[in-house]
């Protein structure tokens, strides 16, 4: 069953918390991974891999650069989840 | 003094070892003669011939927040903890630049390990096999590279004069400190954070060292297994942790009114060119390093009152080192008291030179040297003064010096000298 937008944001918040130590409540759709959430370029790869597993979605490397904010990632997952 | 022969002093120390999470607790345990060796009770150790090791007394995971720790090999975590302690101990209030008494362009780091990020490499290979390509951590390369600890410490203190990692197996930590002394002496830097670290307690290194017959298999007696100079010694016990010092030009230290532990007099270096792993049995290679130290510094042999020996508790190595002392000093060794703190810490490989430099520095600073434990029956071939069981008071007056010996597979010999100021 596909995840809702709220479930995806909550799931990304848990992933970012695990990887970057940011409190889950600070992970909001308007937040930039690199500028606001302390996710550097290598850690972003970890976020993507964890999101792929959690939401059963494939995020090719070429698409990762377009995922600047939590909202970008949420929309991408909503659209591509199987 | 000209810019190519500046005096170098020690203004900060830090350590995290099998005996304690900092240099003070480590030093207390060394003087108390406490062993840091224990049984490996993990499942992976069950089938190994060696099931003992000297784990760090404080796990770095208790100190470094998880988001940072997941990007750092365990050896880099140890180095960072010891370096932070040394940096604060030297009196700095922030990284270079933030603390305006340190110019980032005049600050370096030289931190080394013998093996590098071996647990990262092997752990990620397990991930690759069990979970697939996609799950291999993108942090793997900066974690496993041997220069990782030095680079991470360099980032932490904002070092821009140079970040280096000399690799010479179990001599690496001492070679790092020797390299740092030269950076300051020759004018490349005013301050260098230097030392050694190692984190290799994992079944593969243990199986490999065990198959070389280099490790003690006294699994029934962990605390008695590391017994340098004893007749029944049967190999080293693997330890983990780091020792780091802040070295500084005497002039820079004086200008900011820093507390000075000791002068870092210099180093003597040589290579055995004898065998890839066996020590040269007559001690000629080690004697060459020691002689080189004496020839290239103003160290007077009569000042040397203590040697923190490399002595790892192997039958051959311990003797070769003491033969070298005889070769260089002849009959004049009565003023030198020798100890192997590896009897308590185990052998930290590349970390040994860092931790044992800290011990040597504190020995001259406090004028007391730690003992060697577990010497029940002194090897009858040994004819120098070994400190046994109890710490030894060093001369209360006058200038005294301690040597820290470190040797490594490959035939590397490094001798460092620290002296009261």
UniProtKB/TrEMBL annotation, chain A:
NCBIfam families xrefs: PRK00982.1-1 (NF002147), PRK00982.1-2 (NF002148), PRK00982.1-4 (NF002150)
Domain Carrier per the UniProt entry, residue ranges: 3-81
Assigned protein family: Belongs to the acyl carrier protein (ACP) family.
Modification sites for O-(pantetheine 4'-phosphoryl)serine: 41
Keywords, ordered alphabetically: Cytoplasm, Fatty acid biosynthesis, Fatty acid metabolism, Lipid biosynthesis, Lipid metabolism, Phosphopantetheine, Phosphoprotein
HAMAP family: Acyl_carrier
Localization in the cell: Cytoplasm
Functional pathway: Lipid metabolism; fatty acid biosynthesis
PTM comment, free text: 4'-phosphopantetheine is transferred from CoA to a specific serine of apo-ACP by AcpS. This modification is essential for activity because fatty acids are bound in thioester linkage to the sulfhydryl of the prosthetic group.
PROSITE patterns cross-referenced by the UniProt entry: CARRIER
Record organism: Streptomyces catenulae
Role this protein plays: Carrier of the growing fatty acid chain in fatty acid biosynthesis.
Protein name (record): Acyl carrier protein
InterPro entries per UniProt: ACP (IPR003231), ACP-like_sf (IPR036736), PP-bd_ACP (IPR009081)
From TrEMBL, chain B:
Broadest EC class assigned to this enzyme: transferase
Pathway: Lipid metabolism; fatty acid biosynthesis
SUPFAM superfamilies named in the record: Thiolase-like
GO terms assigned for molecular function: acyltransferase activity
EC number: 2.3.1.179
Reaction equation(s) it catalyzes: (9Z)-hexadecenoyl-[ACP] + malonyl-[ACP] + H(+) = 3-oxo-(11Z)-octadecenoyl-[ACP] + holo-[ACP] + CO2; a fatty acyl-[ACP] + malonyl-[ACP] + H(+) = a 3-oxoacyl-[ACP] + holo-[ACP] + CO2
The keyword Lipid metabolism belongs to this UniProt entry's keyword annotation: yes
PROSITE patterns noted in UniProt: KS3_2
Entry keyword set: Acyltransferase, Fatty acid biosynthesis, Fatty acid metabolism, Lipid biosynthesis, Lipid metabolism, Transferase
Ketosynthase family 3 (KS3) domain ranges (all copies): 5-420
Keyword match Repeat: no
Role according to the record: Involved in the type II fatty acid elongation cycle. Catalyzes the elongation of a wide range of acyl-ACP by the addition of two carbons from malonyl-ACP to an acyl acceptor. Can efficiently catalyze the conversion of palmitoleoyl-ACP (cis-hexadec-9-enoyl-ACP) to cis-vaccenoyl-ACP (cis-octadec-11-enoyl-ACP), an essential step in the thermal regulation of fatty acid composition.
Family classification: Belongs to the thiolase-like superfamily. Beta-ketoacyl-ACP synthases family.
NCBIfam families for the chain: PRK07314.1 (NF005589)
Official protein name in the record: 3-oxoacyl-[acyl-carrier-protein] synthase 2
Species for this entry: Streptomyces catenulae
């Amino acid at each position: 069953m596909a995840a809702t937008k709220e479930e995806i944001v909550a799931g990304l918040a848990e992933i970012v918390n695990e990887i970057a130590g940011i409190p889950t409540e600070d992970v909001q759709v308007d937040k930039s991974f690199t500028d606001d959430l302390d996710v550097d370029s290598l850690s972003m790869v970890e976020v993507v891999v964890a999101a792929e597993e959690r939401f059963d979605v494939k995020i090719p490397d070429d698409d990762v650069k377009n995922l600047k904010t939590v909202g970008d990632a949420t929309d991408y997952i909503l659209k591509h989840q199987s | 003094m000209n810019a190519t022969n500046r005096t170098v002093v020690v203004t900060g120390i830090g350590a995290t070892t099998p005996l304690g999470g900092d240099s003070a607790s480590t030093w207390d345990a060394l003087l108390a003669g406490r062993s840091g060796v224990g049984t490996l009770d993990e499942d992976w150790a069950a089938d190994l011939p060696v099931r003992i090791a000297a784990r760090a007394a404080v796990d770095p995971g208790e100190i470094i927040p998880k988001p940072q720790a997941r990007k750092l090999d365990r050896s880099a975590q140890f180095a960072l903890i010891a370096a932070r302690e040394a940096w604060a101990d030297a009196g700095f209030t922030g990284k270079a630049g933030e603390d305006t008494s340190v110019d980032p362009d005049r600050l370096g780091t030289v931190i080394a390990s013998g093996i590098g990020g071996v647990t990262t490499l092997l752990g990620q290979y397990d991930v690759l096999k069990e979970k697939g390509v996609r799950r291999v951590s993108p942090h793997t390369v900066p974690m496993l590279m041997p220069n990782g600890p030095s680079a991470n410490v360099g980032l932490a203190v904002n070092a821009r004069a140079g970040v280096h990692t000399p690799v010479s197996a179990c001599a690496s930590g001492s070679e790092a400190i020797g390299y740092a002394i030269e950076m300051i002496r020759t004018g490349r830097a005013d301050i260098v954070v230097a030392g050694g670290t190692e984190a290799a307690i994992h079944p593969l290194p243990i199986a490999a060292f065990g198959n070389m017959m280099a490790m003690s298999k006294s699994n029934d007696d962990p605390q008695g297994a590391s017994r340098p100079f004893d007749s029944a010694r049967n190999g080293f016990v693997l330890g983990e942790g780091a020792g780091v010092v802040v070295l500084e030009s005497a002039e820079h230290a004086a200008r900011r009114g820093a507390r000075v532990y000791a002068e870092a007099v210099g180093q003597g270096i040589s290579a055995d060119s004898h065998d890839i792993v066996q020590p040269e049995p007559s001690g000629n290679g080690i004697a060459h390093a020691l002689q080189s130290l004496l020839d290239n510094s103003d160290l007077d042999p009569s000042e040397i009152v203590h040697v923190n020996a490399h002595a790892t508790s192997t039958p051959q190595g311990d003797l070769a080192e003491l033969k070298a002392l005889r070769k260089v000093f002849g009959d004049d060794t009565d003023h030198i008291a020798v100890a192997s703190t590896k009897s308590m810490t185990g052998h930290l490989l590349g970390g040994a030179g860092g931790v044992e430099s800290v011990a040597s520095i504190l020995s001259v600073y406090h004028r007391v040297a730690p003992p060697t434990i577990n010497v029940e029956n002194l090897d009858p071939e040994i004819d120098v003064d070994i400190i046994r069981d109890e710490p030894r008071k060093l001369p209360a007056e006058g200038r005294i010096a301690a040597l820290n010996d470190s040797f490594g597979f490959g035939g590397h010999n490094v001798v460092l000298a620290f002296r009261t100021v």
